[in-house]
Design a protein that fits this description.
Helices cover 31% and strands 36% of the residues. It is an alpha+beta fold. It starts with a helix and ends with a strand.
Length: 150
Amino acid sequence: MTRVFGPARLFTERVRLQQQNRGVLLVAWHGAEPVGTVYVWLDEAEEPELRRHLPGVPLLVHLRVAEAVQNNGVGTALVAEAERELRRRGYSSVALGVGPDDHRAESFYRRLRYAEWSHGEIPTRSEFANGDGDWVSTADRCRVFAKNLD
């Protein structure tokens, strides 16, 4: 899975959090091959702006779809399953962050009826593996989109 979606550390951490009922890691499969993933963050948001304006609202993070199957409904299916899971757990809304210049992601989430909040961009952290496979965390900004699940 890490060959397609990034460092093993990310998945190890998400599985650990899932075992503690702090989130849900969803994986889309095509046969025996993973083709997409998203993590449903149930913990309190790390960003103070989210805690202030969207207290207790779960987040969708790290939606990834293998390049070979992009634009075939995998991302849409993962988000729909995440929303179903949140409804089953009694949540009435969900939020997520989109990079300031990521117009493709913005279009995708708007198509799924997510709306940008009115509080502007917020500071956050981006985590990724560099060319050496080391985990890197950098300061970043994001735009917040939310959706009512009722």
